[in-house]
Design brief:
By secondary structure, the protein is α+β, with helices and mostly antiparallel strands. The chain has 16 helices and 18 strands.
Length: 485
């Protein structure tokens, strides 16, 4: 942890910074208005200078409006002292009257792509915590230096026009708005803000580890940033907003997402756009959503796929964990069974009793509509392909006759649909009403769930991919009106 009375590299850098005051912060956060009366905000606080400054400023802003903040620290458990640091953060914030909770990342940790997977886990944990507490706004402390590093990283990878604008100051997670009020503020100003308040902070050693790309980029470009945006292309935001509108129109006119997690793409609508980048973005977003991935496939792969589906009316290939299957004037995009974990996911009996939600394949959620007592053999989730009855012609024929849109889907698309099982067989299928499934099973001559006595389970499926089909509305913030404390 740094000591505000003992000069360090960051302390010397802070001599060039100007502390943010309440007026400057209000100018930044009011750009995300409107907020509810007596707003409650979550603030992601790692303990670093950036997030500590954000917590203190947001706390004061919320208090003056009759609200409050809840500071949330994700303990990834990747370093031996992470739990101690999380505890220190809580103690430091409570001296300011700020509520604090720790969100541990449980389970096995990844061996590769650690920072990326930790980032995904962090946002998932924060989003879930906000949903549980009914919080609508999550503040994170990315700042101007981070923005310039991000643009530099993307440029080194040959980024397309969408990426040149950098991070949006506003994103939408599953349950909460993610807001970045500091994207126009230099790190030096945030350090100066803490020093003016004599507030300590934590230094994360991973920020100096050259094995991570961002650290290497930071050292390569020797960032020295004033509190302006001269390093960001002036037309990048306007270009991105125009592209977003065009891509959104392409998706709206050409893509339908079925409740069973299958996308149906109208080829005429997709290929109407003359802009190759637009078509790549549109198709990439569909594949990302259906596959439950955090990012879409590479542009080169998408461009090759677009050419292949355009030239071949019966093209079939795989990309991004999905099957892309063209049938005449439609392209069906669905999860690739071979890329799924087909090991049945046993549902914890406590979940069944409490009615809590369970997530499967990072795309579907299932919850019991009322507390139930599970049978002794248990309940589990897996793809429909695991069901013996799925492989019978009678079942598939009945499926297509009773559930209209099913008839046109490729068999492999049906195989990837999520299903609920017990020891006696199929209970429900994701995206279908239980009554529809019962009709299908009856027509196929199979035993229905309703005929199993008191074991019937009333549950709800929801297609809930990691990212929505489209997240537009890139937002940038102006510089603070005043940075004078």
């Amino acid at each position: 942890m740094s000591n505000p009375d003992k000069p360090t590299t960051d302390d010397r850098a802070a001599s060039d910074g100007t502390p943010l005051d309440a007026v400057a912060f209000a100018h930044l956060i009011d750009g995300f208005a409107p907020f509810e009366t007596a707003p409650v905000l979550a603030v992601a606080v790692s303990g670093g200078a950036d997030s500590m400054a954000l917590a203190l400023l947001a706390h004061e802003w919320a208090q003056t409006r009759g609200g409050k903040i809840v500071a949330m620290t994700v303990d990834h458990g990747l370093r031996s002292d992470s739990a101690h640091e999380a505890k220190w953060v809580g103690q430091a914030l409570r001296t300011h009257g700020i509520d604090h909770i720790v969100l541990p990342w449980l389970g096995d940790k990844p061996r590769g792509a650690v920072q990326e997977r930790a980032r995904i886990a962090r946002y998932d944990l924060l989003d879930q915590a906000c949903a549980t507490r009914g919080i609508l706004h999550l503040l994170v402390a990315h700042h101007l230096d981070d923005q310039i590093e991000t643009i530099a990283m993307r440029s080194s990878h040959g980024t397309k026009p969408m990426g040149r604008a950098g991070m949006s100051s506003r994103r939408f997670l599953k349950s909460v708005r993610l807001l970045r009020p500091f994207l126009s503020v230099a790190k030096n100003d945030l350090i100066a803000t803490l020093k003016a308040r004599r507030q300590d902070w934590v230094e994360d050693p991973s920020n100096q580890n050259p094995k991570f790309e961002r650290v290497r980029i930071r050292k390569d470009i020797r960032i020295t940033v004033a509190a302006d945006q001269e390093n960001i292309p002036s037309d990048a935001v306007e270009t991105r907003l125009a592209l977003e509108e065009t891509i959104a129109n392409v998706l709206a006119r050409s893509v339908m997402i079925l409740p069973v997690g299958v996308a149906v793409v109208d080829t005429a609508g997709m290929y109407r756009s003359q802009d190759r980048d637009v078509r790549c973005y549109a198709l990439g977003q569909v594949i990302r959503t259906i596959g439950g991935a955090a990012y879409m496939p590479s542009f080169d792969a998408l461009a090759n796929l677009l050419d292949a589906t355009y030239n071949d009316a019966s093209h079939r290939s795989s990309l991004g964990g999905c099957i892309i299957h063209r049938k005449s004037d439609r392209i069906y995009i669905f999860r690739e069974v071979g890329r799924m974990d087909k090991t049945p996911m046993v549902i914890d009996p406590d979940v069944l009793r409490s009615g809590r939600c369970v997530r499967w394949d990072n795309r579907f959620e299932w919850a019991a509509l009322s507390p139930v007592l599970p049978p002794l053999a248990g309940i589990w989730i897996g793809p429909l392909v695991l069901c013996d009855v799925f492989h019978t012609k009678a079942f598939r024929a009945a499926f297509g006759e009773i559930v209209g849109f099913i008839a046109d889907l490729p068999r492999a698309a049906l195989a990837s649909m999520p299903a609920l099982y017990d020891k006696e067989g199929l209970r429900s299928v994701g995206g279908l009403e239980v009554s529809a499934l019962s009709d299908v099973l009856s027509a196929a001559g199979c035993v229905t769930p309703q005929s199993r006595g008191g074991n019937a389970i009333d549950g709800r499926w929801r297609f809930a991919p990691h990212t929505p089909l489209w997240e537009s509305g890139f937002k940038s913030l102006p510089k603070p009106v005043s940075l004078l404390a």
